[in-house]
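User: tokens in, sequence out, please.
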């Protein structure tokens, strides 16, 4: 294991009984285990994820004080953003960034599909991020495994959880983004739709945004960071790389296809499935700080929502 990452130190029982040697354990679950490191995500994908993630946080933290305007924390959040008008402006700017990021991804995906020698490989099969019947079987098998009723499901390049997260962005942009644009430009849309639809758009925008917030900050955070085998952080999306042992645990079908990769030269360019250099100390520190800040703010936001709903 490279010493370039951020580590915490633990003692095993053998250490305590023997020489007491310290074994560093990386905070980043993607850096645990044996190498080599494998490129999992490209720079383009990581930038899009970063923009999507940052804009989502801003949208949530500017929208929550409006959705729960009577909650004790609402005035404090509004003051933080500089008032209602300033918060609204920031909210709309974040929405524009999110939609632009989404469109950039769709255009890039369409271009990649057009240029691919085998487009069906990207649309169907174990390499595809498109949901398939096997994902329903994996979902059932996962819950059987949770209760010790069967083996853990074997995932390819993407698990059913990752596919669900991916497709949820499409739903969110169309439903939440579409209703938001109706409320942003009411004069324009009023030429084509009846007035009562703006009331529907207001309800849909708020409720769907609340549902997305609750899902991302609970289910998604648990699957990605807070599971016992990943706690406290999985920074593979931030650094773009993971150890081969991590890949065998999380994506064993894909890892089996990478047999013999240990003898291949390291690629400094982030290209899928090629050997990668270990993350630098700087990139690991950035991923750690950014990751802890993200899920800390997310869990605090869930706390505020529960406070507003239950109190």
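Assistant: Sequence out:
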């Amino acid at each position: 294991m490279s010493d370039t990452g951020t580590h915490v130190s633990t003692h095993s029982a053998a250490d305590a009984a023997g020489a007491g040697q310290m074994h560093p354990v990386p905070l980043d679950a993607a850096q645990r285990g044996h190498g080599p490191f494998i490129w999992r995500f490209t720079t383009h994908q990581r930038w899009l994820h970063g923009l999507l993630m940052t804009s989502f946080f801003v949208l949530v933290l500017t929208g929550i004080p409006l959705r729960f305007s009577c909650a004790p924390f609402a005035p404090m959040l509004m003051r933080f953003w500089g008032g209602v008008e300033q918060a609204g402006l920031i909210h709309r700017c974040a929405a524009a960034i999110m939609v632009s990021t989404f469109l950039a991804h769709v255009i890039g995906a369409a271009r990649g599909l057009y240029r691919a020698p085998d487009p069906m490989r990207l649309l169907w099969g174990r390499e595809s991020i498109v949901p398939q019947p096997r994902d329903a079987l994996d979902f059932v098998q996962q819950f059987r495994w949770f209760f010790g009723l069967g083996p853990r499901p074997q995932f390819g390049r993407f698990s059913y959880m990752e596919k669900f997260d991916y497709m949820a962005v499409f739903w969110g942009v169309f439903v939440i983004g579409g209703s938001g644009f109706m409320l942003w430009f009411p004069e324009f849309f009023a030429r084509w739709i009846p007035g009562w639809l703006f009331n529907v758009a207001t309800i849909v925008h708020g409720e769907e945004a609340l549902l997305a917030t609750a899902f991302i900050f609970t289910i998604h955070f648990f699957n990605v960071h807070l599971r016992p085998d990943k706690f406290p952080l999985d920074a593979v999306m931030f650094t773009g790389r993971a150890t081969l042992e991590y890949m065998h645990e999380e994506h064993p079908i894909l890892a089996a296809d990478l047999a013999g990769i240990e003898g291949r030269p390291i690629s400094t360019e982030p290209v899928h499935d090629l050997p990668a250099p270990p993350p630098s100390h700087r990139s690991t520190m950035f991923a750690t700080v950014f990751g802890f800040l993200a899920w800390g703010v997310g869990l605090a936001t869930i706390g505020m929502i529960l406070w507003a709903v239950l109190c």
